[in-house]
Amino acid sequence: MKMMDPTLAEMGNHLSDAMKILESGKLESEQGKERRKLSWKDFPGPLQGDGQDVVSILQLVQNLMHGEDEKQGHRMQYVGEQGHMALLGHSLAAYISVLERERLRKLTTRILSDTTLWLCRLFRYENGSAYYHEDDCEGLVKMCRLAINTHYEDYATEGFTVLSSKPPVIYQSAASRPGLGQHLCSQLGLPLSSLCIVPCNTMFGSLHQMDVALLDKLIRDDRESGKLPLLLIANAGTPGAGHTDKLSRLKELCVQHNMWLHVEGVNLATLVLGQVSSTVTAATKCDSMTLTPGPWLGLPAVPAVTLYRHEDPALSLAAGLTSSQPVEKLRALPLWLSLQYLGHDGILQRIKHASQLSQQLLEHLKTLASIKTSVEDELNSPVVVFRFSQDSNTPSSGGSVKGNVAEERDILDALNRWLGEQLAQQVPLSGVDVVELEDEGTCVRFSPLMTAAALGTQENDVAALVEKLGEMIPVLSCTLRFRQDFKDEVLQQASLSYIEDQSWPGLGVVRYEARSTDLDEDKRQYRVEKINSDLLKKLMELDTDLYFSDGPEFCEEKNCIFIGMATEDLDVAELVETIVSIGKDIEESGKFFENMTEVVRRGIQEAEQQLQKANEEKLMEEGVLRQIPLVGSVLNWFSPVQASVKGRTFNLAEGCLDSTEPVYSVKAQMNKEASLDSPKSVTKQFPGQKLFRRHGAGSDSVSDTSSVSHLEESFRETAHVQAIDAEEAEVPQEHHVHIETETALSDQRVPEGQETESVDALR
Predict the structure, then answer these.
(1) DSSP H or E segment with residue 326
(2) How many angstroms separate the CA atoms of 746 and 701, rounded?
(3) Percent share of the chain, pLDDT over 70
(4) What residue spans carry the Basic and acidic residues bias annotation (predicted)?
(5) pLDDT over 50 at 349, yes or no
(6) What 3-state DSSP class applies to 332?
(7) Does 280 share its domain with 426?
(8) What domain range is 362 assigned to?
């Protein structure tokens, strides 16, 4: 037995250690972290002259991979041992490429022949050849070139000129990958007129399968118009719903019209299982198929494989399917190593495990109300697509979704989009995502064949997914039922505007409108923006389960309040009236701030005029002699003047000065107490109960009142504190400000009884 090359063993150990270091993220010390924050960032630096060691270089790679995010949840997923074998293949490819030419040729030939043989046997594709490529579309491009070289004999010498007499046509299903046909035309140099999109079934069969009868008609029409049907792209698992075309019927059609049949899709992975549906088994008779074993088996950086059958090696070479360069043949090395590491049983176990996860989820979804599934074969479907839909048996309180079918679908699409995002966030190991289907709309997709191997999805993850889904269905149902109630309540309020936004997954969108009509458009818009901004802050501070926001980042509607999902015990009327109450208080408070500067300026001018008038009257009443300092003092001593202090009140609402009585302070205090004691509508909130909830979940009882008591108290306290701060800044905040105008001279002596009376008046 030969000993293993020590260089290879050392390379494998170094690579394994490097992967563990990069995955763990524990290479860097605390001092190194501080130095990194100050040094590397995103700025490139000069190349060091003396070089760096391996640890320093790995440290730089680790920093670039993880950035400044120290949270473990955001780190890259763990790469298993089979993943390390795939990564080792890339390092070995670079090492093997330096071998002498003859030895390299023998080694690459062995790697290619072994890998091709294993894949053809695994996926039941007899007498096939393999082309390994990094881009999963590249294999299809090569198949098109092979078909062109086969149908146009002079294409190798004359090029595209031979295509003008009989233009080729490529047929593609409407359910295929978006942009696939355009990519083919771009790579092949063909016009977009060479691409024919075949619609899916509309009456019989799956809505995601290609309409075979219509395809036959299109092919015949193209032949009659002088075109050449070249290639047909079929799906064994559409990208959206995972449905399989009628491959047997399509193969017969391609043979009849001498066309090339290419098949791709996730369902091709099930060919390795013992029991395979007949629709997928028909893919083994096609001319070519593209496999993506990387995501199916959890292998990073392994190439995609296109298996094909063709008898002319010269045409294959002309199409670029074979190469004389040994280095290009080493693309299969990572896959060669990984397949050996997993073995036949390991590959079978991973594909089978993914299929079992799909069946487990499908069985649970059947027991959930308001969930509609879209699968091709309930007994053997590796892709599960489901959607929340309105249950006709669900009771409604007059708030069911009204309007045309398009609006109802938009609302359901928004709710399902929210559902998919929440499930992906709360159960990340499930690998669910949101998919847009032409007929069903927005759905949630579970495709474990593409995600389970990399994420490590297990049965308990599917159970957690079903549990979360069961918790979210009542929330979705209540939100859908209360949307119309919320709209009706908002439309009854003159100060609120209901914003139609079917794309918002929540109760609805509302805007508080300014009631002033004497403002120009710019000022009114500014006031609306300010009121709604303050209103949103107040609503977000409330003790409630409702979610308030200013909407998505790229929302067209501005200055609005977006209200999130609702629960069963939501009191919609109380919610709307609370929004109106808070908005009205903010609007009235804002009017005082806006008008205060002009009102104060006019009031000061009027006060100055009255003070000047009072001084002139005092001069006429007392005479000129009393104004002389020395003479006036002596005269006032012998003959005092009976002077009084006249109070003035400054009304901010009317902007004028009024006279006051000596007992004004007593009357003001009485008025203040009376206003505080006046009856107000308050919400009866039970201990431990949050706002906007009816007492007793699920009952029809509602709150006795229309506003929230502690909300009003907190808002009054806030307004009172603002008033005090504004008074200290010499800006009045109360409705009445007292300006005392004293008409007596500062040095005038006031009799004893009248002095007390004047002080009381001042107070």
Answers:
(1) helix 326-329
(2) 69
(3) 70
(4) 710-719, 732-741
(5) yes
(6) helix
(7) no
(8) 350-391+407-476
